[in-house]
Amino acid sequence: MTRPEAFTQFKIKKDAKLAPLSTFKIGGVSEYLAIAETPEKFVDIAEWAKKNKIPLTIFAGGSNTVFPDGKLKGLVLRFFGGKISFQGKECVADGGVLLGEVVKKSIGRGLSGLETLSGIPGTVGGAVVGNAGAYGHSIAEIVKSVEIWDGKKKRWISKRECNFAYRQSVFKERQWLVLRIRLGFKAGNAAALRRISRHIIAIREKKYKPGIKCPGSFFKNVLVADVPRKSLERIDRSKIIDGKIPAGYLLESVGSKGMRVGGIEIASFHGNLFVNKGRAKAADVRKLANILRKKVYRKFGIMLEEEVRYI
Predict the structure, then answer these.
(1) Residue 2 needs a FRET pair 20 to 30 A away by CA distance; which of 47, 275, 307, 309 works?
(2) Which of 205, 234, 266 is a domain's end point?
């Protein structure tokens, strides 16, 4: 590891607490932590770390992140901040901008395309990486292109090159940095879009109560197209929504509600919400996730995949 004095060209924190940086409020400390507020600084720090062979861990909003217990070696780099600009029906947003800000500003301009994502936490860059979505829509629908740093240079890639799929993108497979996103909206009515947005936020807040220590839905919903026929025969067809089997339904079928390991408890009102009830550890999360994954597989023959990201 490079000596601490080598970090003087950037604002680096030593032994920074990680738990406050995620909605789960779990994690130990990072050996070093840097926060990049612009795409340029994001690239500068990442490029410098690569050049100096410093282990690099990258995250953004921390809304679906599970930090490890103990000490995370190397440099943890957070991309958080940036600018949004609109021109006609298009918007270019820096990856570190909060998704909620892009949603709010687009609705205010009477632009339709993100209203169903109202209330989803995290950054727009993180939303693109995970192809975030809700109520039958995803951010991929309005992405036109993405500016990346591929480890050697900055360049724009097309929507097709992003390889979007359900909660998936090329960015989960390649170590590219998402710098900026160009979005293309449709014309809409601002007042009508606000009503939709308020309604969706109200629904979300019943599920994700303000201040709840959780990373959102823990496991991904399951695409019916990926499920073997024998497994599908065990599913209540009335539970299938938009070609997906809700992970919550599968989990509740095996008694997940109220289950607890250490400081992690499954919410009593939703089987796919892992809640930190106090001093929870990442080890508790993994243990409970493994227990539930096995239970679901034994009953349905379906192997659940995490929507959250273990760092």
Answers:
(1) 309
(2) 205
Q: Convert the pLDDT of each residue in 53-109 to its tens digit.
A: 999 999 999 999 999 999 999 999 999 999 999 999 999 999 999 999 999 999 999
Q: Is 160 a catalytic residue?
A: no
Same-domain check for residues 109 and 9 = no
**252 catalytically annotated:** no
Active-site residue, 286 included? no
My answer on whether 93 and 199 are in the same domain is yes
Query: Which pLDDT score, from 0 to 100, does residue 211 have?
Result: 84
Report the domain count for the chain: 3
Q: Which of 31, 115, 147, 307 is catalytic?
A: 307
Residue 39 reports pLDDT greater than 50: yes
**Residue of 167, 169, 197, 231 marked active site:** 167
Domain that holds residue 191: 84-205
Same domain assignment for residues 95 and 192 = yes
Domain boundary (32, 47, 79) is at: 79
Kindly report the three-state secondary structure assignment for every residue of the chain: CCCHHHHCCCCEEEEEECHHHCCCCCCCEEEEEEEECCHHHHHHHHHHHHHCCCCEEEECCCCCEECCCCEEEEEEEEECECCEEEECCEEEEECECEHHHHHHHHHHCCEECCHHHCCCCCEHHHHHHCCCEECCEEHHHHEEEEEEECCCCEEEEECHHHCCECCECHHHCCCCEEEEEEEECEECCHHHHHHHHHHHHHHHHHHCCCCCCCCCECECCEEHHHCCHHHHCCCCHHHCECCEECHHHHHHHCCCCCCEECCEEECCCCCCEEEECCCCCHHHHHHHHHHHHHHHHHHHCCCCCECCEEC
The answer on 12 and 28 residing in a single domain is yes
What predicted TM-score, i.e. pTM, was given to this entire model? 0.90
Instruction: Read off the pLDDT of residues 127-174 as tens digits, 9 standing for 90 and up.
Output: 999 999 998 899 999 999 999 999 999 999 999 999 999 999 999 999
